[in-house]
């Protein structure tokens, strides 16, 4: 900055200089020659400032803005109202109108989403099971919507992929169904839930007889066993003393109506036999189940938690989407 | 506080250009007519289609398909855009290396729309002196009518520019009706309003500042210049002589008189400055503001003709030739490594793009294995793997596909109860498939192929290799 014309100017007697090296000053001077430069703000900046100032006023009209005590200004009703449909705990739907806020914006979007999905849910509800499975485009919707419903409601026990947990929840992807794998049976299972039970046999038969029965059960699915003991077990299985056949059937293949296990296949729900290494361990686990019984096969009913169209969609998802339906 | 005497940081001198006639002006006008014809008429061009509106060029965002005549571009083809951008860049570098900023001067839309708007000003307000007079006079009826009229027309053209842009994204005849009846999508209105404002501001108000202050190309195109690059140049040796340029006055009228006194051919008429759309003086040498439009060449040639001097005082010439001891006729110097490099990149990229477009299959198949669980043990001890098969039909007709397997028994494939895999034109479908293999086969099978055969005649089957998992 040029300093050449600062000397001898700006004293009380002299007229203040309004320019300093091309830059204007405020006209005030101190100690004779100290002056204040005034570089004006760029015009565009000043205008931008005015516009933002006006914008804040518009903002107050449309959005929640000022805190007032324990509440806040909510803008002008009518300018910024949002109306959405909310589902209450008892399942009834109510319309709600509020001032602008993120949650109601979210609710409006959810309403729109549900409206977009409705045509598909309606189609699922109106179509018989076997025809849904024949409609490739409808199945595409069932697979994607079912995955979400399954993840929200079923996955905590049956796992995200429906593979279940041995000793806790059945695998829904295989071809074995305790209570039947037809559409109607799966739907009944979801609606009403299930409760499996096997009595303890330690008071009924001797320890040796339990060993015979366990060897027989292992022999049915081709696991290592003692053949002599197993043949004794086979006889005991059909007697009224042990009475195994009453629930598991004379062919030991289980009865879907009561959810008794098929003992002849390779699928194990309560004992993880294929993963055990020695015949002794396998025998021990089966013996434990026979002597102690089972009271763990509980699935809760879902008719109060899911809508009928959701249950129907889930049924198709489990039957077709997971791939194990009969 | 005296603000009025403040000197603004950047003083804006409005540029009022003089119109000019000549071959560069004609070329610019021809390019402009061609570009506007294509831009404004293309959305209205009909084209027979099966699965979409009958529009030759339509970027359909709803169904995520870009229709470009008989080519349909799907989101999966996004890398074509990358190749196209690379080609555009290589082409820009190539031409810049050869003949300077030809893009800026003749083809850039900022130049095209500015040119049109300047032409409007010229038609309504008159030639440069009339416009200067209008600018300096107070606001009266004449000024309001003429200035207001030309800006109203600019806004109208900007509006139609915006509507045309939006029409590329929707079936134009229906879109325009919906737009004016208030039934078009919100995005359409936002697009039209924003583009109208930006087009008007950029070409009608901000003009050359877009090039000099906003445009990155203007700044970096300079690095592609070489000494051999042809650029709009003032022949200072000829124009200035040894004693500098001077206006013709008594004793300095003819070329012989001027040369005898050491003056050059430039008669300092200033027309080259007056016609310049960025308001520079080309006689100061190559400047980053120069968009290479050649209008100063036209202006100077006209003056040279009228005073009877040879043309070409301002011309396309290279830096090397201008400073050479023995200047030759200006010519394209293409035997340069840089030019060859750009050309090679351009040819390879263009070839790849065309090869890719030509060899694209009408069907796209992706197979995703269900990983939770990776395999299922069935009651008879066999193993099941499950797959999600995604088929995209890129044709304009509904298509039926046959799904088979290769490398494992045919009957091990099961796609549920779906009787037929039918995919609508331009759509995709995901179906679930199961593969059940007996234990003996499963433990020796690590991979197999899905084969998707479109039913249309002479369609090639698509083969996707995938894994099979089991407990080995």
Notes on the protein architecture:
- The complex is a heterodimer of chains A (326) and B (472).
- Chain A is mainly α.
- Chain A contains eleven helices and nine strands.
- Chain A folds into four domains: 43-72, no CATH class; 82-124, no CATH class; 127-194 and 299-321, Cytochrome Bc1 Complex, Chain D, domain 2; 197-296, Orthogonal Bundle (Cytochrome Bc1 Complex, Chain D, domain 2), CATH 1.10.760.
- Chain B is an alpha+beta fold and 472 residues long.
- Among the domains of chain B are: 226-323, no CATH class; 363-467, Immunoglobulin-like, CATH 2.60.40.10.
- In chain B, strands 6, 7, 8, 10 and 12 form a five-stranded antiparallel beta sheet that branches.
- Chain B is built from 17 helices and 14 strands.
- Chain A binds chain B through residues 18-19, 22-24, 26-27, 38-40, 42-43, 130, 133-137, 139-140, 143, 159-161, 163, 171, 173-176, 222, 262, 265-267, 274, 320-321, 323-324, and chain B through 1-3, 5-9, 370-373, 376-381, 384, 386, 388, 416-422, 429-432, 434.
């Amino acid at each position: 900055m040029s300093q050449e014309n600062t000397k001898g100017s700006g004293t009380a007697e002299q007229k203040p200089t309004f320019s300093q090296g091309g830059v204007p000053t405020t006209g005030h001077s101190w100690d004779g020659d100290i002056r204040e430069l005034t570089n004006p703000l760029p015009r565009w900046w000043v205008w931008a400032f005015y516009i933002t100032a006006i914008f804040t006023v518009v903002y107050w009209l449309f959005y929640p803005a000022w805190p007032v005590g324990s509440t806040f200004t909510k803008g002008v009703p009518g300018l910024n109202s949002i109306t959405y449909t909310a589902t209450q705990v008892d399942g009834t739907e109510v319309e709600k109108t509020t001032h602008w806020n993120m949650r109601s914006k979210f609710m409006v979007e959810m309403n729109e989403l549900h409206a977009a999905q409705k045509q598909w849910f309606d189609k699922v509800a109106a179509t018989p099971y076997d025809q849904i499975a024949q409609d490739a485009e409808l199945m595409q919707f069932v697979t994607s919507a079912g995955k979400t419903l399954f993840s929200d409601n079923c996955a905590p026990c049956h796992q995200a992929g429906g593979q279940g947990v041995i000793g806790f929840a059945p695998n829904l992807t295989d071809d074995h169904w305790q209570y039947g794998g037809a559409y109607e049976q799966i739907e009944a299972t979801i609606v009403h839930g299930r409760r499996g039970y096997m009595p303890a046999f330690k008071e009924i038969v001797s320890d040796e007889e339990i060993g015979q029965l366990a060897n027989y059960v292992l022999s049915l699915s081709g696991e290592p066993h003692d053949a002599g003991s197993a043949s004794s077990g086979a006889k005991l299985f059909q007697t009224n003393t042990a009475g195994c056949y009453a629930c598991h059937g004379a062919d030991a293949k289980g009865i879907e109506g009561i959810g008794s296990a098929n003992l002849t296949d390779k699928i194990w729900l309560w004992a993880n036999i294929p993963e055990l290494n020695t015949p002794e361990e396998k025998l021990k686990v089966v013996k434990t189940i026979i002597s102690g019984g089972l009271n763990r096969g509980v699935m809760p009913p879902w008719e109060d938690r899911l809508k009928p169209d959701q249950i129907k969609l889930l049924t198709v998802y489990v039957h077709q989407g997971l791939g194990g339906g009969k | 506080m005296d603000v009025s005497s403040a000197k603004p940081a950047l003083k804006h001198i409005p540029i009022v250009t003089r119109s000019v006639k000549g071959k560069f002006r004609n070329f610019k006008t021809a390019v402009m007519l061609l570009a506007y014809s294509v831009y404004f008429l293309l959305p209205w061009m009909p084209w027979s289609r099966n699965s979409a509106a009958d529009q030759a060029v339509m970027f359909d965002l709803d169904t995520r398909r870009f229709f470009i005549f008989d080519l349909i571009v799907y989101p999966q083809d996004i890398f074509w855009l990358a190749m196209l951008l690379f080609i555009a860049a290589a082409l820009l570098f190539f031409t810049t290396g050869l003949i300077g900023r030809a893009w800026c001067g003749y083809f850039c839309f900022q130049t095209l729309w500015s040119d049109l708007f300047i032409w409007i000003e010229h038609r309504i307000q008159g030639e440069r002196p009339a416009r200067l007079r209008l600018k300096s006079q107070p606001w009266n009826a004449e000024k309001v009518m003429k200035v207001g009229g030309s800006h109203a027309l600019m806004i109208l053209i900007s509006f139609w520019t915006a509507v045309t842009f939006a029409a590329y994204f929707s079936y134009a005849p229906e879109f325009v009706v919906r737009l004016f009846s208030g039934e078009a999508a919100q995005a359409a209105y936002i697009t039209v309003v924003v583009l109208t404002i930006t087009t008007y501001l950029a070409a009608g108000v901000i003009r050359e500042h877009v090039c000099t202050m906003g445009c990155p190309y203007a700044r970096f195109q300079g690095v592609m210049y070489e000494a051999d690059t042809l650029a709009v140049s003032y022949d200072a040796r000829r124009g200035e002589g040894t004693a500098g340029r001077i206006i013709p006055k008594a004793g300095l009228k003819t070329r012989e008189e001027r040369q005898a006194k050491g003056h050059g051919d430039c008669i300092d008429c200033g027309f080259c400055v007056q016609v310049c759309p960025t308001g520079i003086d080309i006689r100061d040498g190559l400047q980053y503001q120069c968009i290479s439009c050649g209008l100063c060449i036209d202006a100077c040639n006209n003056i040279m003709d009228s005073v009877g001097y040879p043309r070409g005082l301002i011309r396309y010439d290279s830096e090397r030739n201008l400073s050479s001891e023995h200047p030759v006729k200006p010519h394209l110097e293409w035997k340069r490594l840089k030019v060859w490099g750009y050309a090679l990149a351009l040819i390879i990229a263009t070839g790849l793009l065309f090869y890719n477009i030509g060899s694209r299959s009408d069907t796209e198949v992706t197979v995703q294995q269900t990983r939770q669980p990776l395999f299922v043990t069935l009651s008879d001890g066999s193993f099941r793997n499950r797959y999600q098969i995604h088929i995209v039909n890129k044709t304009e007709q509904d298509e039926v596909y046959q799904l088979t397997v290769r490398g494992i028994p045919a009957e091990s494939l099961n796609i549920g109860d779906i009787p037929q895999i039918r995919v609508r034109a331009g759509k995709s479908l995901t179906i679930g498939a199961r593969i059940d293999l007996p234990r003996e086969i499963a433990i020796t099978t690590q991979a197999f192929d899905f084969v998707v055969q479109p039913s249309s005649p002479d369609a090639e089957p698509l083969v996707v290799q995938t894994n099979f998992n089991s407990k080995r």
